[in-house]
Amino acid sequence: MCGIVGYIGDQDATPIILNGLKKLEYRGYDSAGIAVLQDGKIEVRRDAGKLNKLTAMVEMNPMTGNLGIGHTRWATHGMPTVNNAHPHMGSTGEVVVVHNGIVENYLELKEELLAEGIQFKSETDTETIVHLIELYLGLEADFTAAACKALSRLRGAHGVVTFSTREPDKIVAARIGNAGGVVVGLGDGENYLASDIPAILEYTRRMIFLESEQMVVLTKDEVKLTNFDGSPVKPEINTISWDPVSAEKGEYRHFMQKEIHEQVRSLTDTLAGRVDFDQGKISLAQLNLTAEKAKQIQKIIITACGTAAYAGMVGKFLIEHIARIPVEVDIASEFRYRDPIVDENTVVIAVSQSGETADTLAAMELAKRKGATLWANVNVIGSQAMRISDGFISMQTGPEIGVASTKAFTAPLVDFYMLAILLADLRGTIKEKERRQLVSDLRLVPNLVSKILQSEEGIIQAAREFKFIKSALYLGRGINMPIAYEGALKLKEISYIHAEGYPAGEMKHGPIALVDRDMPVIAIAPKDPWYEKMISQIEQAKARGGSVLVVATEGDEKVAELADHVFWVPETPWLLSPVITVIPLQMFAYHIASLRGLDVDQPRNLAKSVTVE
Ligand code: AGP
Fold first, then answer.
1. CA 43 to chain centre
2. Which of 247, 416, 461, 592 is most exposed by smallest CB count within 10 Å?
């Protein structure tokens, strides 16, 4: 949460930083600010609200300089006000800080600083950092040493970026704890900093990812990476293959809409290089999985949050059905505080688009401590989840900017499908004919997705009709049960309509009491093994006056007769059906939110990467 950008070089830092912040607004949009070193003085502009307010402010009152830092905030400590907006300056005007994360010991530090007579101007935990650096700067004279001393006193998980008028040719940044990523972008006679790749991707593809407890000092010509104890670290330079254009909205109104439509490409890329259609084989090289290791696995635990956890639920189904290995799905924020039964024969798979979700990372650390093999299904290259895992499956979705996850939901479904086949193959528990059929079915996916995307007009019409609903009940069964959860989450997070996902078979145990003409039921009923059960559920809802919208397989006359609305999906092999059935629900949520005039890409109270607890 919170986006950070920094620049040092010969160009004007202001437009580079504002442009970078635009790409990071998905990380937080409560306030935005920028600090530039102008004629030896720190100039700050900041405002509550979205980035466009800051941009207008800078236009009215321009600032220029070759070194600067910027921030978009997702408020944790203190309301989203101007005073609480980053960057934060100290009392001397010599130091400025932007920060992503929570200073867990800030009350203790604040007390110490108050006792020194320092006055606070904001309610943020961040302000303690800048005062602490200034305090040490008073004693040390060396800015880097003062920053290092101050930063090593912070507890929690952070990315911090700071500069000072005392040493006007450098920016210092640090990563503390697991969350709060810091990325260094290497230029020619200039260098960049960001909390996330898309902010600087248009300027460089050569990037260094800081590990926890590492500091970096940037000048325009040099990047010096050290541990907090001052020992040098040889940086690993990664070349990022993402296309900078994929981090732009292009012709679409919103990133979410663009990302929904990108699923043909992301799923094509998901298969590329991993599926051998001739041999009917799967290869997932970065998992480092051998037949011996596959045979040792006694249990798999999938851990994740939100949409990623729902993808994990489909993953459970696929692995249990195809590879016959027991799988549990555990919400990361719960798993991390339990004493889960995990040993060296357990594989823990973390699913995460960002690879920076604090709860997921904590769950991964716990699993590692308990001796499990750790795998990650992760999108952001170089993210912490990718780095701490023993093996990973990289989602081939490119950057996902919309806060509501779409293409980073369907990619893991296909990744789990491939993983299940690979595990079954390596363990020798699948017949060749069946394996070949499962692999061959994958070929259909991009085309099926493309077909559904062409049905957007019908979905817009339904959205027009449903846009004023107050509540909705999403029902699914079997492999499509998690799609009910995911469909409901999409609707609630961007349109602020209450929605519940429910296993359809549980209706009679309580929720059916909710059904009346004001509570639409959205049923996911493709031609899969639970089809008949879903039909009887739809009939029960109809009998109670509910209006029913059904996701159904083309040509299904029974559904056509029963339902008030149908989102038709093409016939799909049932183990792949969740990849297909979720897409109309993504579009439905998108169009409802859009018709309600809401900010689809930046829904209230949310941020893309949840790097705090
Ligand atoms: C998705 O629409 C949500 N915004 C959210 O549930 C998200 O999936 C969750 O926070 C997990 O994020 P991650 O995949 O980056 O770990």
1. 32
2. 461
Residue 132 placed within a domain: yes
Distance (Å, whole) CA 438 – CA 433: 9
Tracing tokens 């990047």 back to the chain, one arrives at 223
Residues 57 and 165 in one domain: yes
Last residue in a domain, options 402, 421, 452: 452
State whether the beta carbon of 85 lies less than 6 angstroms from ligand 1: no
How far apart are the CA of 510 and the centre of ligand 1, in A? Answer: 29
Q: Is residue 611 part of a domain?
A: no
Q: pLDDT at position 391, please?
A: 96
Q: Which of 610, 611, 612 to mutate to test the pocket of ligand 1 (most atoms within 8 A of CB)?
A: 610
Q: Is 594 in the pocket of ligand 1 (CB under 6 A)?
A: no
Cα dist. 341→259, 320, 326, 386 in Å?
A: 38, 19, 13, 23
Q: Are residues 393 and 365 in the same domain?
A: yes
CA distances from 300 to 327, 372, 389 (A): 5, 9, 15
Q: Tell me the CA–centroid distance for residue 67 and ligand 1, in Å.
A: 33
Q: Are residues 9 and 133 in the same domain?
A: yes
Residue 442 sits in a domain whose CATH number is 3.40.50.10490
Determine the Cα–Cα distance for residues 58 and 66; give it in Å rounded to an integer: 16
Of 22-31, 174-183, 350-359, which one has max mean pLDDT?
Answer: 350-359
- In a shared domain, residues 238 and 256: no
Ligand 1 atom closest to Cα of 403? 4
Count of beta carbons in the 10 Å neighbourhood of residue 334? 13
Report how many domains make up the chain: 3
- Assess whether pLDDT exceeds 80 at residue 536: yes
Q: Is residue 603 part of a domain?
A: no
Query: 51 and 73: one domain?
Result: yes
Domain that holds residue 338: 249-452
CATH code of the domain covering residue 171: 3.60.20.10
Cα(256)–Cα(254) distance, rounded to whole angstroms?
Answer: 5
Both tokens of 144, joined, read 């880097």
pLDDT tens digits for range 220-245: 999 999 998 889 999 999 998 777 66
Cβ-contact 482, 578 below 8 angstroms = yes
- Give me the DSSP letters along 465-514: HHTT-SEEEEEE-GGGHHHHHHHHHHHHHHH--EEEEEEGGGGGGTGGGG
Residue 173 belongs to some domain of the structure? yes
Tokens of 589: 């949520």
Mean pLDDT of the residues in the chain: 92
Considering the entire predicted model, what is its pTM?
A: 0.79
Q: Which one of 2, 22, 148, 258 is the catalytic residue?
A: 2
pLDDT tens per residue across span 61-102: 999 999 999 999 877 777 888 888 999 999 899 999 999 888
Q: Specify the pLDDT at position 141.
A: 74
Pocket test for ligand 1, best of 195, 259, 260, 307 (most atoms within 8 A of CB): 307
- Same domain? For 308 and 384 the reply is yes
For residues 424 and 459, membership in a common domain is answered with no
Active site residue 2: yes
**Domain endpoint, select from 246, 269, 294:** 246
Most confident residue range from 23-32, 192-201, 508-517 = 192-201
Long-range contacts (CB closer than 8 Å, 24 or more residues apart) made by 465-468: 465/565, 466/520, 466/549, 466/588, 466/592, 467/495, 467/592, 467/595, 467/596
Residue 513: Cβ within 10 Å count: 10
What type of residue sits at position 581?
A: T
